[in-house]
Amino acid sequence: MNAHTLTDHHVSDSIEHSGGQRLGRAFAARLDMTIKRSGLTSQRVAKSLGVTEGDVALWRAGITLPRNADCQRLAELLHVDISWLSGRSAPAERR
């Protein structure tokens, strides 16, 4: 395992937090949709963030959540609001 995977948060571990599982599914769905819409590959996203393609695949599947710093960088790379990407707000695209 790499250092990034060790610090990722497993969605199943977030169940005790209010709405953790729901937010994990929302994040995964929004991330997957946004990556597809951007035309980027998981490999390119991973390279841009300095993580493995496996990390990105786990995030897209909703198995793990990225660290806060990676989530911020994802939002910047994909040109979306971090609150929206995290599933905490209504859809809004950053410009």
From TrEMBL:
Q: Which SUPFAM superfamilies match?
A: lambda repressor-like DNA-binding domains
Query: Single GO molecular-function term?
Result: DNA binding
Q: Which InterPro entries match?
A: Cro/C1-type_HTH, Lambda_DNA-bd_dom_sf
Show where the HTH cro/C1-type domain sits. Answer: 36-85
The UniProt entry, under CDD domains, shows: HTH_XRE
Q: What is the designated name of this protein?
A: HTH cro/C1-type domain-containing protein
